[in-house]
Amino acid sequence: MSDSHRPQAKAYWTKNIRLVLSLLAVWFLVSFGMAILFVEFLDDFRFFGFKFGFWMAQQGSIYCFVIIIFVYVYKMNKLDHKYGVSEDKDDSSNQNPESDK
Fold first, then answer.
1. In a 3-state reduction of DSSP, which class is residue 84?
2. Domain map of the chain by residue range?
3. How far is CA 14 from the centre of its chain?
4. 50: helix, coil or strand?
5. Of 12, 6, 3, whose CA–CA distance to 85 is shortest?
6. Digitized pLDDT (tens) for each residue of the chain, 101 residues in all
7. What is d(CA 82, CA 6) in angstroms, rounded to the nearest whole number?
8. Main-chain phi, psi angles of 28, to 5 degrees
9. Measuring CA to CA, how many Å separate 12 from each of 23, 59, 61, 68?
10. What is the pLDDT, as a whole number, of residue 66?
11. Are 8 and 83 in contact (CB under 8 A)?
C-alpha cells in the first residue's frame, strides 16, 4: 500500500492487530487459564474418561492452538482480500497485467 492509501493501510493494520490480540487472548485463556488457573474447578468434570483440567493441560490446549492457527489463516486471507494486499497469484495478475510479460 502506498502513501495514497494511508487511511486504508491504517485500517488494515488496526484490524490485523485486533485479530492477533484477540487470538492471543484466547490462547492465553486456554493454555494458562484452563490448564493452570482453573484446573481444580475443571477437574470436577470428565472428558474422555479423564479429568477435564488435566485433559486441557495435556491435549486440549494443543488442539485449541491448532484451531487458532487455522482461524488466523482464514481471517487474514479474508482481510488481505478485503484490502487488496492478497498474495494469491490470481489477485496479483488481475491488478498488474504487465507482470506476466
1. coil
2. 14-84
3. 15
4. strand
5. 12
6. 555 568 888 999 999 999 999 999 999 998 888 888 888 898 899 988 889 888 888 888 899 999 999 999 999 999 999 988 878 765 444 555 444 44
7. 15
8. -65, -45
9. 17, 34, 29, 20
10. 95
11. yes
Tell me the β-bridge partners of 47.
50
How confident is the model over 15-36, as pLDDT tens digits? 999 999 999 999 999 888 888 8
Non-local CB neighbours of 27 within 8 Å, separated by 6+ positions: 64, 65, 68
Place of cell 497469484: 89
Global model pTM greater than 0.70: yes
The three cell numbers locating residue 45: 468434570
Strands (E), 36-93: 46-47, 50-51
| Distance in angstroms (rounded) separating the CA atoms of residues 75 and 66 | 14
C-alpha cell at 16: 490485523
**Amino acid (1-letter code) at residue 31:** S
- 19 by Cβ neighbours in 10 Å (0-12 / 13-18 / 19+) ranks as middle
